[in-house]
Amino acid sequence: MTRINSLAAMAAVALCTAAAGAQQRDLPARDAVAAAVATYNAERTLRVTGVLEVAAERTIEGDVAVLNGPVRVAGRITGTLAAINADVQLSPGASLGGLIVVGGTITGRDAATVRSEVLQRPELLRYHVADDQRLVPEEEPAYDEAWWRRHTRRRPPPSDDRSWRDFTFTSAHTYNRVEGLPILVGPRIHQVTDWGRFTLEAFGVVRTAGPVRWDRGTLGHDVTSELQLGKKLGLGVGGRTFDIVDAVEDWQLNDREVGLAAVVLHRDFRDYYRRHGGLGFVKLHAGADADLTFSFGDERWENARDRDPFSLFRGGDPWRLNPAMDEGTMHLATSRLRVDTRRRESVLWGGWYLDAEIERGTGRLARDPGLLTVIPVPEDVAYTRGFVDARRYTRLSPDAALNLRFVAGGWMSGDRLPMQRRLSVGGPGTLPGYDFRRAWRVHPDVLTCGGTVLPGAPALCDRVMLFQAEFRSDFGVRWVRNDARDDWWRPGFNRHASWVLFADAGRGWSVGAPDLATTYAKDDVPPLSSFRADIGAGIDFGSVGVYVAKATTTAREPMNVIVRVKLPF
Amino acid sequence: MPRRLRRHLLAVVALLGATAAATSAQTRPSLSITPPAAGEVTRTGPVVVASRMLSGRKLQELLASGFPARLHFVVELWSVGGWVNDLERFTEWDVVVRWLAVERVYEVIQIVGARPFSLGRFALLDDAASAVARPTRAPIVASAAARRMYYQATLTVETLSLSDLDEVERWLRGELRPAVRGERNPGTVLGRGLKTLASRLLGGERREYVARTGVFQIQRGEGR
Q1: pTM of the entire structure?
Q2: Do A172 and B174 count as a contact with CB atoms less than 8 A apart?
Q3: What is the predicted pLDDT for the residue at A568?
Q4: Percent of chain A whose pLDDT exceeds 70
Q5: A116, A300, A508, B147: which has the fewest Cβ within 10 Å?
Q6: Does A67 lie at the interface with B, CB-CB under 8 angstroms?
Q7: Chain B residue whose CA is closest to A87
Q8: Rounded to an integer, what distance in angstroms lies between the CA atom of residue A412 and that of residue A390?
Q9: Residues 206-265 of A with CB under 8 A from B
Q10: Is residue A122 situated within a structural domain?
């Protein structure tokens, strides 16, 4: 067999020599690769992996094949030198019987002697070495149009496809005026099996906001367990028991931005309440892109008093009060659909994002604790609430994208929504042209539905609707950088930046006897002319963006400057 | 100053400037993408070359200190439309360069999908840079539909230590686990996390290079 390979190599080289004389030329890829591989696999070929240096006084008899290289020849090789994924440097006086270079460059060709033809293919050759040490070139992978292949290309393979367990010490992703930095301590188990996986996270919660005591203000727990059947497509069954502080509206800004604003600027963009109870859930999942979850829970809701955690700036100022919430026990049945086909985070996205939820709540609550004129008396409550956050990310070209978002949510049926389920708009995550929970310039108050007159300015709207659109386009900032110099750490200018134009429109309203200002009948939607709108522009440096927004429907609202550490939406 | 002397001085300055610019261009990292030859566009993909990517002194120091460099390539095929262009196909791969202190060599690995492929181990950084710069054909071919198309390649270069990357990711997820294991004290890990986070937020640890081919026309029936 090796004899045949040797003959094939000689034949390939001889054939090319006869065809083209002693000239160097880029052959069709298969010819050069075939010749190089045949030379490598020939029985008498000297095989080298890595550096090969042939000194001026040295002579190598026969053929030589080199993987990766580099190859430096000042002496003589009587046979053919086949360099695969290797650069070849020929010194004056070097002499070769033949030269085949695949995936490499040749320097010094003119000063050296190559008795037969030089074959070269510049492109890298992917190959593997078989059990019998023969080199086998790999075919160029075909682009697979199958939809499931495209799906797998969209995301890297999950890194948690192995079993592990540990005892972890973790922060809870955020920082806020009620908990400070919540720290979770406890074991985690992630067991992967042939039929799916089992996960358990059993955390004790320690809150750092003072006063730190051995009580429920400082301590809590959050234990979640899930049994997942099927890896990419399948069914999950699980449960959770918790005593935690949760956010009222977590859809406006992400945890990281809320935490950074609180710890740096002494500004908290969320309200909080305590949840103590448990739930069970069934989850239908389709990989990382989509899942549908049904959960049934029984929990107690309580107020969460704000404390005075540390912040870098304005530490002497008081925090915005955490508004009083409804208190009592609730039974919650929730259905949630999540679809996320956005491709990747490193460049502009393209795809859909959908988060839709319907919640049915029944229980007994002491309501309206913020209204100090009445003493709350527990009453039976039953409500249904829906929420949809739909986004479309469209790349218009490699440098430009148009992103659209539609949010609608609120009361669907039953009694008034609890304070924990009310909504608002306004602020950096929704209408950046309007200050967060400072709606006194807006009349009527369609942003919080009157919440700003209450302590802590809670969200009081039964329903909200929001439209957001942004157009972004890359621009190069290479003119401020010099790659040849030592500027690796020059902040902000190592990537392309984007300029961004955006516009938003939204409002909230209450459901009840229509007053055509902030309250509408249950089947009515306020006219678009009553929506509050803003426009703005900014520059996004990849992870940090600086934006300017101006309200267009409220002339007195001053221009706002916003810094975001994520894409606006 | 006499006008003639001034003119000569200006000429010398311009010449020096041009020489400096040419020298800088020769040492500057560059990314290029070359489309297939006419008639081959429906059978083979473009060739991507990332030259001199390891040339910065800071990067070299980081590599020598054990911080691997990761080069992430994304090649996209776009079709030209009236108002908007459409992303037809894309492919991506990585090249990782790391210094093996015990063996005193730089190792270069190309990773396509989940499959690593060694591009070699080199005692000299220049040889490792040459391995990084090997022309790579992206397996992404144009469909036979008669359209105007172009390729774009994006290369993101970042230095990282695998442990640091893990640490940062854990920190962003809120985990402080290495500190508890006694590998580092919590203050240090938090400080390092904050420093790295700040650096990443400002884009200081990553560089991005973009190259694009010209628009080419696929003739009707080509590739059948």
Answers
A1: 0.74
A2: yes
A3: 74
A4: 85
A5: A300
A6: yes
A7: B130
A8: 18
A9: 256
A10: yes
